[in-house]
């Protein structure tokens, strides 16, 4: 069935949203819901389908070709297809790397366009932003070096000569530029203020991966990003004032990030003590799984 559906997708056009969107969802969930042994075979089937990968290339490119709506709208059928495309490609990136699967067709994406899709949101639906951030996380985790993905540099057309980074700092962060990093961090901070649960989870996860990437590439830039004073204001904006306000998954994960990179100007001993006190008073058995996992990570980091 996976083989048949992937072949069907390869015969479609990007505008065939009614057929493509559920089909891509089926491929996505097939990868996630199967056993590890079958998962490896499923990844091989999809990555050997050149027509499917060419279609995914066209679908993703429609993200920046679409006209932004005049006002925020519910998820349109085209936006839903874009979400499915980004989520499927993010999953393929992760599993191709995990299983070292042979790639028969690469995907080419302009990194500047991907970043701008998050930085300049143009009233994109939340689910579409989350899907693009899932892809961005997968690319960051692999240092933009996946054999499935060809990254086209900033201000560079495909096939043109790659420009030299403008500074030693940019060279260390390549293919990201320092200014792009700072713009992305500001955009992620702004998205957190929306206090949407799904969006907050995706933003914090993206921020975690970004700082990890930066720390490997250039520790000074990573520590500078992690210690931005605006983070402290952002942190307390997220708190809802309730008795267990610190025991929110996204807040705990942010706290863990700041402890990990020793951002003492963001999180002090006072906040750490307050979290420990709230955890001691909580009924741990009744905490949601996401909160329990985030609390576990925080305590281990402390």
TrEMBL record:
<dbReference type="InterPro" id="IPR052133">
    <property type="entry name" value="Immune_Signaling-Apoptosis_Reg"/>
</dbReference>
<dbReference type="GO" id="GO:0007127">
    <property type="term" value="P:meiosis I"/>
</dbReference>
<protein>
    <submittedName>
        <fullName>MEI1 protein</fullName>
    </submittedName>
</protein>
């Amino acid at each position: 069935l996976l083989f048949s559906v992937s072949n069907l997708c390869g015969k479609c056009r990007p505008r065939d949203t009614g057929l493509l969107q559920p089909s891509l969802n089926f491929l996505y969930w097939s990868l996630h819901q199967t056993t590890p042994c079958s998962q490896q075979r499923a990844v091989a089937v999809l990555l050997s389908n050149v027509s499917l990968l060419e279609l995914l290339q066209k679908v993703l490119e429609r993200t920046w070709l679409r006209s932004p709506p005049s006002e925020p709208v519910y998820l349109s059928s085209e936006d839903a297809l874009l979400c499915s495309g980004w989520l499927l490609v993010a999953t393929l990136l992760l599993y191709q790397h995990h299983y070292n699967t042979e790639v028969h067709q690469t995907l080419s994406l302009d990194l500047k366009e991907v970043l701008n899709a998050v930085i300049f949101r143009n009233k994109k639906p939340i689910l579409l932003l989350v899907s693009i951030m899932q892809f961005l996380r997968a690319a960051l985790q692999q240092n933009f070096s996946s054999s499935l993905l060809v990254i086209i540099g900033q201000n560079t057309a495909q096939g043109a000569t790659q420009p030299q980074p403008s500074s030693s700092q940019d060279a260390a962060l390549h293919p990201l530029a320092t200014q792009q990093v700072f713009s992305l961090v500001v955009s992620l901070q702004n998205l957190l203020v929306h206090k949407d649960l799904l969006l907050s989870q995706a933003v914090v996860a993206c921020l975690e991966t970004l700082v990890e990437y930066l720390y490997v590439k250039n520790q000074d830039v990573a520590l500078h990003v992690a210690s931005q004073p605006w983070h402290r204001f952002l942190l307390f904006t997220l708190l809802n004032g309730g008795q267990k306000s610190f025991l929110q998954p996204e807040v705990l994960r942010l706290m863990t990030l700041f402890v990990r990179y020793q951002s003492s100007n963001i999180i002090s001993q006072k906040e750490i003590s307050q979290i420990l006190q709230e955890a001691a008073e909580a009924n741990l058995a009744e905490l949601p799984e996401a909160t329990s996992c985030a609390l576990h990570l925080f305590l281990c980091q402390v």
